[in-house]
Fold each of these.
Amino acid sequence: MSDIDALLSEAAALTEKTLDRLLPKPMDTEAVLYEAMRYAVLDGGKRLRPALVLASAKLFGVSENCAVRVAAAVELVHTQRLTHDDLPALDDDELRRGNPSVHKKFGEATAILAGDALLALAFEILAGPETHADPLVRANLVSALSKAAGGRGMIGGQMIDIIAETETLDLGAVTRLQRMKTGELFAFACESGAILGRIDSARRHALHAYAHDLGLVFQIGSHLLDAEGRPGGEGKAAKIPTAGKETFVTILGKERAHGQAAMLADQAIRHLDIFDERADDLRTIARFVLERQS
Amino acid sequence: MSDIDALLSEAAALTEKTLDRLLPKPMDTEAVLYEAMRYAVLDGGKRLRPALVLASAKLFGVSENCAVRVAAAVELVHTQRLTHDDLPALDDDELRRGNPSVHKKFGEATAILAGDALLALAFEILAGPETHADPLVRANLVSALSKAAGGRGMIGGQMIDIIAETETLDLGAVTRLQRMKTGELFAFACESGAILGRIDSARRHALHAYAHDLGLVFQIGSHLLDAEGRPGGEGKAAKIPTAGKETFVTILGKERAHGQAAMLADQAIRHLDIFDERADDLRTIARFVLERQS
């Protein structure tokens, strides 16, 4: 079995080294934009999505140099979302992982522009020849990540999340919201190894199924942490959930939510049965996501 | 000679048909996001950048079906910028081409998310197999557009524009700002035909040079329109320039600005000398950009 701490810290170190290199500190007039981008992304996050990319690439013997660029791109997209979601017009969060959020530190205008630039940079990285020698792989990575990030994925999920503050959603709608908001980017991270390895078969589908179950485990966990008043899974300050806003916990109750998460984590791991021990990192990550305490 | 009205209206009709198809109206919870994206992009703009893409593609015999997808992607990126620039934290514009700006119509949160989704969609379109059969062309398009849009291009230019409100820039710095803010996206539009036609030679460099001169003509023109209190070239309401903010007109004076624009337009057209009459559309557009009255 893999050790989760070693696994996450290795993924974090690799990804951060790459991000540091891809985001140089310019001396030009616009330097503050890059400072804000660096501040947003080099903030000591858990780097769960990069760990998934690296674990997925390992399954297919993909070179780490290629995989870590994809890991960096996923983290940039994730950070773009956090940066914009923290804005006053959206979730209005002043803190992120105990530090001032990007707009508190740099102002709203810079935070908006930094988020935009992070998103553009993610696609620039994927399309670059260093990511993969085969241009079809690069185009496929851009295709998959832009869909996962866009109006039918992460950004659309955030839109529903805002609507959910005033409208009541049922369990199906909450599941769809979470699948879009979190699940699609998880799915991209988990499948990216198969895209890089040019695998398009039952093995890619197994990773897709794993990712969607894992995404739901992650979100149920976040809702449970919120309900218990503990810092949420995305580095947010502990926050009283918006009155009336439906979560897995308000709909299912705590006990059933716990049970559902355990069932889904188990199911996620079973999707990996077609792989040998090279999938142990993915198995370890699934257990970690189920049991995480912050 | 090409007729500019016919040229622009044909480019607009083609591009809008494609955008309409690429932005379906969903019936799901997040429908408002797509409504806001459609409102932002299907707003009767002049479609100058799409016209440049189509004119550039014509030079190399690229199929219109491919070129129009690139034209749509460029227009989405341009619209993303306008949508976010109009936000209260940036330029705080309540009107765009005489209509409420996206955040006035849909609220700030939706405007921020719609801008994000427009950017993601632009890359999704370019990476899709319908844009070109050769995946290297698709990857090159994504590379070029993400650089033109990013922190070293359009978004970085907007950052400098914000900094320029409190710091004094000299002519070199204003030129660099405008080159990033407007010029890079113009350059992508003009070079996209060469990317689609797999031309990497003096002909692509000529288009690059044409585009950068044209971008400056466009910006000097916008500053002149602003200085004369007429509606600006980007569909903005007439606006008193921010006190102390340097523009080509405050630095050069009106007369020299006019002269500079005429000289640059002439130079832009001369860069096209290596092309035959197939470049007439680009020549016509350069004259139009110099003489435009709004």
Amino acid sequence: MRVKSDMASLTREKLAQAAALVAATDLDVWMTFVRETAEGGDPVLPLILEGGLTWQSALIVYRDGRKVAIVGNYDADPLAASGDWDDVVPYVQSIREPLTAAIPAGARVGLNFSESDDKADGLTHGMYRLLEGMLPDRQLVSAEPVVLALRGRKTPEEIRRMREAIQETDRLFADIAAFARFGRSEREVYDHVHALVKERGMSFSWDPAGDPIVNSGPNSMIGHGIPSAEIKIEEGHVFHVDLGITKDGYSSDIQRCWYVGTAVPEDVQAGMDAVNAAITAAAEALRPGQPGWTVDEAARSAIVAHGYPEYLHAVGHQVGRKAHDGGTLLGPRWERYGNSPLQAVQEDEVYTLELGVTLPGRGYIGIEEMVRVTSDGCEWLSERQLSMPCLA
Amino acid sequence: MRVKSDMASLTREKLAQAAALVAATDLDVWMTFVRETAEGGDPVLPLILEGGLTWQSALIVYRDGRKVAIVGNYDADPLAASGDWDDVVPYVQSIREPLTAAIPAGARVGLNFSESDDKADGLTHGMYRLLEGMLPDRQLVSAEPVVLALRGRKTPEEIRRMREAIQETDRLFADIAAFARFGRSEREVYDHVHALVKERGMSFSWDPAGDPIVNSGPNSMIGHGIPSAEIKIEEGHVFHVDLGITKDGYSSDIQRCWYVGTAVPEDVQAGMDAVNAAITAAAEALRPGQPGWTVDEAARSAIVAHGYPEYLHAVGHQVGRKAHDGGTLLGPRWERYGNSPLQAVQEDEVYTLELGVTLPGRGYIGIEEMVRVTSDGCEWLSERQLSMPCLA
């Protein structure tokens, strides 16, 4: 729970990256405007600040690289102590005066709102209305390009932490394979993973009520269901786990599956091969400059060509601080995805590649890998699961 | 981390309360509109839903009491299984069609936005813009009165959980008194509390980087500072701790202090008496119907009458799921508090009563108690600290 001493270098590294990103846009300033962040707050906050903020607070990065924090007087000392900010301006009664002084009339102000991306959409509507009132004669526009690039393009330190999270996830999958057997319920597997994650001082990369997702056989709830105490692992099932953990602030998101029995039947083998062929097709399509939807289309065509139905989600999403980390999506051009699948893939983004097929009478074969985008393609961060082990 | 089985009764109890609150307004529907809630999401969500939601989701309560959830297809099964919703409508490609079908043209739609209250301000600006596009010809207005009453007015089950959280906090203060002594640093005390809270399976009610706040002597950072490894407990110090924990989803927020030495000096005793006189004045002013600022003014006048400066915060805030739980504030009519201090206190709200004075050469004397508003006054939930114990 405590702020690590190496957090300081991470926030400073990300603030420097932010200044460069602002300078590459037509924004005069990028402003993160928050209050009472203890309950979550703006998703961009942990990238640029240790700890929390209580009263209305403005974290401002100017296009010339200057960084100014305007915060309630009780929050000022730790911010000043961090050394990350050129100026920390405390206030007692109202932020209006220091804020209007900091943002000149006519300025083009990038704010954290976005219709298509929740990770660039940390500004609440009430806070937006407050800004409208306090900052007339300024242009309040979306800072989506800055926020998404800041979040998506991982620094070496961020990649190092993600590799560690993946390593811990692999270890948990080995523990799961040792624990799962005939007669164990989905819920028992879930409880076992929760005990291990707690013991190892880690947390979950999505809502822990549905992490891990555990499915055994054809009657299980696929997706973000709650693991069942009634459904038990039985011969002939496909046993499937979707697990993500967070370590040192960075996350994993991986799916693995097993056949319950002594020999993998032909239909299960065929399903597994089709899923992996589609993941390979996605990886081959993934490189900087590609719009996200083209990568999804490569996988979608491959699974259909193998005679299976289309999956009802995106073939890949970015991973970072959370399992679903926003930004460009490797997904179809469906309305609910907004612009996310239209944007271009960039170097140093980390994506999942994931899909599955449901086999009648068997269950769900789902595989999810993690990759980093390189200058001309991608590298696997997870070790691919290409064959289906047996559980008995 | 797991959803408790008694959560179901809590969400159902709160949804029934919500329906009654909507019927008492001029709203046709109250709608909570969220996506990707794993990173926090709308603060009202845990009151009405177990677990999380991934795609754009609308949780709708009509004024006739009907409750409808429109969610991505992977989230539908657990919602249907909860039994809390009259109808769960799953979608795959876009929420637009089921949403426009659910909200008739001309309807007055209460949404979770508020300029003055973060706990009623869970709708992001990007999500508001989406709704504007999808729901033309509807009136989109603030649902602040519904959300604040739902959150503020505690049910018996909520009060029961808060009493437990307070009991655990008292136990931690006893542990702190046993651990703190000459030469221990603020940071060591903080670390000790973190170890105990982890061991007891609880969490912190505000950002754990600054919970507990630990201050010893005149050179400590008051407020939301990070406890110092350099500042140690020394003779003549006032030693002060502000601590809040969360247990079963409900929180405490309490301040206690000690004098470091063998006998409490006169100036420390006088400061302590003044602080408690002001807290008593606040408690005597607190009852249903009072605007929050009048309670603050009672305490503020009392501390000034005792010859100490005004405190730079509100004398009380609501506590519930979090330490700072929004709604009516027992605070001065300063701009940054918006309308919160103008609203009337209601029965079954839980407040802190808190303030302090800084003594030159000694440190900060701060006391914070917790009270529940009754039909004609308030009852103490915490056992008041009226005298100053010695630490040595």
Amino acid sequence: MSDALLHGYFRSSTSFRVRIALNLKGVAYDQTFRHLRKGEQRAPDYLKLNPQGLLPTLEIDGQTLTQSLSILEYLEETRPNPALLPKDAIGRARVRSLAYALALEIHPINNLRVLEDLKTRFGADDEAAAAWFRHWVAVTFGPLETRLANEPQTGAFCHGDAPTLADLCLVPQVINNIRFKVDMTPYPTISRINAACLELDAFKAALPANQPDAE
Amino acid sequence: MSDALLHGYFRSSTSFRVRIALNLKGVAYDQTFRHLRKGEQRAPDYLKLNPQGLLPTLEIDGQTLTQSLSILEYLEETRPNPALLPKDAIGRARVRSLAYALALEIHPINNLRVLEDLKTRFGADDEAAAAWFRHWVAVTFGPLETRLANEPQTGAFCHGDAPTLADLCLVPQVINNIRFKVDMTPYPTISRINAACLELDAFKAALPANQPDAE
């Protein structure tokens, strides 16, 4: 018996974030899939659920929720254990600032619809689109590595020794980087944290390769 | 006597969001300015405060906070009145989903450093960069107008009859649109809410044109 229905796609890193949160918090969920490359997220029945035509959408508690970061905050407010945000306001601000650096400064610029637009609008080929992707990763991963390496609040994970929203945004980005051949050598702290996350079943089960729609 | 120091720029819409929140919550603050077009956000002294070299940074309560959305959540947690999020989890999820549609799906793709990169990387001229800007506004403003026009929770503002995080993200985007000559005719609900916000002193005082560094 499931408590929720997630509309996602195996490679969608925003769906990946929500899968990790549901797994960590022990929410039983079913999945249905919208193949992004086939444009299934723009089908009329899906637009009724999610007018932006974006993934993911989570049906839970009789509600239909959109925008992955909003879904994560909702899950945290309604299912507080295990906590994905620290208790103190300063700690919460640090976690959110790390999460948003990833979720705002990389993913929106590098997602599929933007890369496709670069091709049609500016005639970018696959290699030019990949170079764009790697550029915006580097612009943010450099400062992020500095912060995570130098700030005392960093522990086994981005903030202390349990995963937070920041880790939920970090791992899908690192996994996404692999497809675009990002050199991770300059980011030893990020790589260490990513490896620590992937030791946990909640993260492993959420990996794109482990979804029923994986190709 | 000020309680906070905001490092911003008059035209920075992320700084604009924070100015509105500080004004609404009655936090006395000083401002210092980093001229984005002159690259002052990449000066070594600023990078110590904000390793990403992005605006804004808020110094408050003895802390240095980055990422505007994280700052807004911090202000809401530490200075809850007037509330910028509803009390119910579903309402909060709605407000955040509206805010994030604006803050994630438009602004990161359309900010100055991305537009400059389009010029150097793909040879885009000013008009091509403006067309890109308008495209990504339209992609999100269409569904946003639909949601705001049809969802019963919309009131005088995005959610009910008092401003929330969604309005704090909406107004700076609408003001930004003017410079790029976005036709607002298809968005009567967004325009109505924007006008209602700009009746409030907290929003008016935060307008780019009303900052000391306005050109």
